[in-house]
């Protein structure tokens, strides 16, 4: 039996999605919370594809059968374990074609009760592409501020207080800077769209949301045009704190959690090579490099802020016209107090209290 995408979206808690595409296809983009139970490995899928191009459909199907046959017991055992959780396994491939049909038939012959998602992953992609812009609320409260002012932590605390937050950096798996990918799993555009859709659905029916002022691109992901328009017309809230506080926060967020990891030093060295292109010819570059090598993190972070991040941010702000009449300023020295201040701004603005 088939299940339509609309049926799944209305009653998704009743199902466990099973993506039977190859691991690489799954990695590039899947329906959120789906479990990958691949019919073919990446290498096997490539072999079948080559056979299809060179020898034709029948030969490719036969090769697929030879590859899959020995794996059927293990594949069904994985689905059986999911079935035992009390939710209906909902199987999909790319278009709702031969791969999901085959797995569903194997399950039925084995006495497992499963459904197949009509149209597969392609139908889901088409649906959210059409739905995304319609789900974006009309109004945004937009947090601006230099690197290290605590905007990400503020968004997290606001969400804990059940405020409608859209944390674009979290969705993108990237903090929007040269160091932005460190310690994170960077989302593909497809996964960014999927998680943005999930977030926008979760904040309905609010007429507004709270976001950080991001560029058009974050990591691998490009923001929807309508989101950029709503951001531009949004209520600006400038987040600020002392330079010393900013340095401390950056060390706590970017360095302390990762400095013992095997990849940390090599990753930072690679990023510093990119900074060199911006600072080439500046005598400060020698001091930046030296402070990093000596692990003088306060000096290292301070120089990067003074010589790169702050000038770049201030330059971008010149090009960013805040169209909203009122601009609010919030001190983030104490995050809890900053969160309360933003809640008050939102409440007053929504109630039209000056």
Descriptive account of the structure:
By secondary structure, the chain is α/β, with parallel strands linked by helices. The chain folds into two domains: 2-129, Rhodanese-like domain (Oxidized Rhodanese, domain 1, 3-Layer(aba) Sandwich); 137-350, 3-Layer(aba) Sandwich (Rossmann fold). It has 16 helices and eleven strands. The protein has helices spanning 5-10, 23-28, 42-55, 57-68, 72-83, 98-109, 120-135, 151-160, 168-172, 189-202, 225-232, 243-255, 264-279, 284-293, 297-319, 335-350, and strands at residues 2-3, 15-19, 35-36, 88-92, 115-117, 139-144, 208-212, 217-218, 221-222, 235-240, 328-331. A five-stranded parallel beta sheet has the order 1-5-4-2-3. Helix 6 (98-109) links the parallel strand 4 and strand 5. Helix 8 crosses helix 16 (335-350).
The backbone outline, from C-alpha atoms, is globular
Order of helices and strands: EHEHEHHHEHEHEHHHEEEHEHHHHEH
Number of domains: 2
Overall pLDDT:
90
Total of DSSP H or I helical runs spanning 4+ residues:
16
CATH class descriptor of the largest domain: Alpha Beta
**The CATH topology of the largest domain:** Rossmann fold
Q: Specify the CATH architecture of the largest domain.
A: 3-Layer(aba) Sandwich
Helix content: 40-55%
Q: Quick one: biggest sheet?
A: 5 strands, parallel
**Through-space gap between termini:** 58 Å
Number of strands: 11
Strand order in the sheet with the most strands: 1-5-4-2-3
**Which regions are unreliable across 5 or more consecutive residues at pLDDT < 50?**
none
Subunit arrangement of the protein: single chain
Strand content: 5-15%
What radius of gyration results from the CA coordinates?
25 Å
The chain-level structural class is alpha/beta
